[in-house]
């Protein structure tokens, strides 16, 4: 059983993921499945090599058979497990609980050789529908407080298999970084009685300095205090704190927006590895006036070193205004 331990100084929770110590990729992060996917557990016909599917979008076939366009399966080496009780304990000045949660893999396509940037718009939208469907289901579990939906693309971004896939991890606590966003947004709302994300969008639309492009439903922008070169945010124009309540037309548009962003980054940066994360409100709360869900995309172009780890500061060598201008000039694909 994984273990959740709380740092008594910072309040940060750490997952001691004992099950993942068995992973063959733990110390060989550079090795990926050979091109072509002959031995890939995510390819059609290899369904028996994954845990039984939780959900699938398919045009033919039955559960755990070929014919799917997207599959969701439990992670074979989960950071957290669904089974068990939290069993919260104090051990002297330390706090711990069982590593209860969920860790799932979304296999985005049966095509081993494609990428999210190359997929049809509908297929990209299906990924975001799958995220929504799984969050809606997981929020029924009262033990869970937060779901982090994310994609690691490329070995440098943490992907150990090259077949296109994303992940989600459901947690029994709200992560510190998410709580910092929630707290900062609430402080702004208490002072201004407005959502800070809505105000950011209004200002960015006025200046146009950091806007990459916009649609009826979304703004794509380089944040003012970007931590990393070419960091981008996809922000829905309509206020909504909870991704799980996003309506179908908005998710369809998000598929086009995400694919367009990734195609621009591929062209500008020669297909960089990246991380993409959905930031949303915690599970067991209602709509929040002060918070706004969004997607953050972080190309892996720099590495964190001693200064960043020691101070919490980031050093970004590319001004977000320059990054946004460069991506605007590429045009829409």
TrEMBL record:
The active site is at residue 165. Its cofactor is Zn(2+). Zn(2+) binds at residues 40, 43, 112, 163. It comes from Paludibaculum fermentans. The keyword Lyase does not apply. Coiled coil: none annotated. Residues 4-175 form the Galactose-1-phosphate uridyl transferase N-terminal domain. Its EC number is 2.7.7.12. NCBIfam families: galT_1. It comes from the Bacteria. The keyword Transferase applies. Pfam families: GalP_UDP_tr_C, GalP_UDP_transf. GO terms for molecular function: UDP-glucose:hexose-1-phosphate uridylyltransferase activity; zinc ion binding. Signal peptide: none annotated. Belongs to the galactose-1-phosphate uridylyltransferase type 1 family. Keywords: Carbohydrate metabolism, Metal-binding, Nucleotidyltransferase, Transferase, Zinc. Binds 1 zinc ion per subunit. Residues 187-303 form the Galactose-1-phosphate uridyl transferase C-terminal domain. This is Galactose-1-phosphate uridylyltransferase. GO terms for biological process: galactose metabolic process.
């Amino acid at each position: 059983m994984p273990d959740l331990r709380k740092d008594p100084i910072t309040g940060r929770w750490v997952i001691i993921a004992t099950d993942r110590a068995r992973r063959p990729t733990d110390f060989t992060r550079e090795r990926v499945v050979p091109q072509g996917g002959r031995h890939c557990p995510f390819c059609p016909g290899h369904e028996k090599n994954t845990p039984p599917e939780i959900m699938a979008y398919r045009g033919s076939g039955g559960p755990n058979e070929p014919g799917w366009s997207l599959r969701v399966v439990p992670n074979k080496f989960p950071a957290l497990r669904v089974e068990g009780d939290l069993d919260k304990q104090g051990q002297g000045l330390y706090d711990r609980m069982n590593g209860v949660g969920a860790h799932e893999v979304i296999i985005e396509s049966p095509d081993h050789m494609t990428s999210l940037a190359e997929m049809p718009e509908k297929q990209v939208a299906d990924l975001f529908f799958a995220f929504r469907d799984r969050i809606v289901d997981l929020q029924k579990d009262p033990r869970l407080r937060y779901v982090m939906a994310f994609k690691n693309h490329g070995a440098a971004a943490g992907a150990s298999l090259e077949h296109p896939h994303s992940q989600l991890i459901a947690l029994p606590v709200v992560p510190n970084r998410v709580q910092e966003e929630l707290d900062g947004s609430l402080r702004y709302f208490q002072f201004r009685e407005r959502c800070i994300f809505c105000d950011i969008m209004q200002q960015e639309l006025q200046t146009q300095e950091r806007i990459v492009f916009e649609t009826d439903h979304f703004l794509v922008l380089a944040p003012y205090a970007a931590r990393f070169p070419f960091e981008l945010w996809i922000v829905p124009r309509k206020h909504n704190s909870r991704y799980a309540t996003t309506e179908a037309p908005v998710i369809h548009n998000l598929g086009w927006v995400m694919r367009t962003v990734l195609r621009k980054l591929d062209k500008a940066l020669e297909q960089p590895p990246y991380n993409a994360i959905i930031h949303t409100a915690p599970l067991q709360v209602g709509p929040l006036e002060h918070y706004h869900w969004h997607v953050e995309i972080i190309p892996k172009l720099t590495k964190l070193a001693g200064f960043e780890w020691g101070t919490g500061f980031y050093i970004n060598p590319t001004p977000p205004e320059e990054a946004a201008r460069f991506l605007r000039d590429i045009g829409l694909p």
